[in-house]
Amino acid sequence: MQYNPLGDTGLSVSELGFGTWAIGGDWGKNNDEESLKGLQKAMDAGVNFFDTADVYGSGHSEELLAKATKGKEDSIHIATKFIRLGDINDPANYSEDQIRTYVENSLRRLQRETIDLYQIHCAPLDMLKNTDIFPILEKLKKEGKIRSYGVSVESDEEGLFVLENTNASALQVIFNVLRQKPLKELFPKAQEKGVGILARVPLASGLLTGKFSKDHQFESDDHRNFNKDGGAFNVGETFGGIPFEKGVELSREVSWIGDERDSITRAALKWVMQQEAVTSVIPGFKNVKQVEDNLKSLEVKNFSAEELKKLETFYWENVHAHIRGPY
To answer: Do you know which Gene3D superfamilies this protein is assigned to (predicted)?
Structure first.
């Protein structure tokens, strides 16, 4: 396992972390015992970074992380997110009192005294620009409620605003083989500013596992069913914004990446980790087997310069035009 500095936080985090949306909710049926076993398996393998949010199962994933990391608060780093439990378009949701309520509730559920990385959870650009959210976060940092703060963004435009106008330590972005735009401008700017990059949706909500056919039916409580066209939240969070049937087709066209890397899943994660600007990639999981499979991405070979160029060309010529939503 390689460990990378997370911006200016002073933390060194595993290049492979894990996201906990799937074990919190909105991905079909869950089993908490299996979730806890998966978290333990990851930590045993050297993973020291987990991403969560107060809205994942209304705090359930934060509570699971508290159980899994009890007694390891100094060595296992947790990033959580806030703002989406309220109306993200209402300025009142960004008041100091409301944000203090969010942070105290997350601290209680996580059973910690300090949050390692506190992230604004995909707030609209006008709210980032026109509220006092960043001064409030600076105040929480001085008080020791949070060690550092970052922003989870939907678009490069939002990310560039954060880089150019705030002291955020990290950006969390949608990034995968089928979503490469951040490589063009956002990532170089983040490197220039010394800001960490957390790569979410690295498997395009499962498209880059190669296991789906175009007629696959997801459970009714799985966001890949109810948000496949952006009906519940930003369409980019589901399949990276690509229509499902088209995504299945495109994933088959890049399946060659797994030929010498055991599987397309492991290859897709390796590709993300190989990008210089990425601090940590945070795939989700629902069981121990998925954790084990993702961990094996650490062992497969890097992509050659020729392969990287081939994937870049494929993205811009065949994929980019199909992405919906702000990106």
So the answer is: NADP-dependent oxidoreductase domain
Which amino acid is present at 171?
Answer: L
In the 8-state DSSP scheme, what is residue 299?
T
Spatial contact of 232 and 225, defined as CB atoms under 8 Å apart? no
Homologous superfamily of 3-322: NADP-dependent oxidoreductase domain (3.20.20.100)
Length of the chain, in residues: 327
pLDDT digits (tens, 9 = 90+) for 85-95: 999 999 999 99
Contact 121, 55 (CB under 8 A): yes
pLDDT computed for residue 109 by the predictor:
98
Q: Is 256 helix (H, G, I), strand (E, B) or coil?
A: helix
Apex 280 CA angle, 27 and 105, nearest 5: 60
Mean pLDDT of the chain: 96
| Cβ pair 315, 180 in contact under 8 A | yes
Two structure tokens written together for 80: 């959580």
Instruction: Tell me what the mean pLDDT of segment 187-196 comes to.
Output: 98
- Listed in order, strand segments (DSSP E) in 161-206 are 170-174, 196-200
**Distance between start and end Cα atoms, the chain:** 31
At position 49, the amino acid (one-letter code) is F
SS3 273: helix
Q: How many other C-beta atoms lie within 10 A of the C-beta of residue 208?
A: 31
Which candidate in 3, 56, 315, 327 is catalytic? 56
**What pLDDT is stored for residue 27 in this prediction?**
67
Q: Is 56 marked active-site?
A: yes
pLDDT band at 25 (very low <50, low <70, confident <90, very high): confident
What is the domain partition of the chain in residue ranges? 3-322
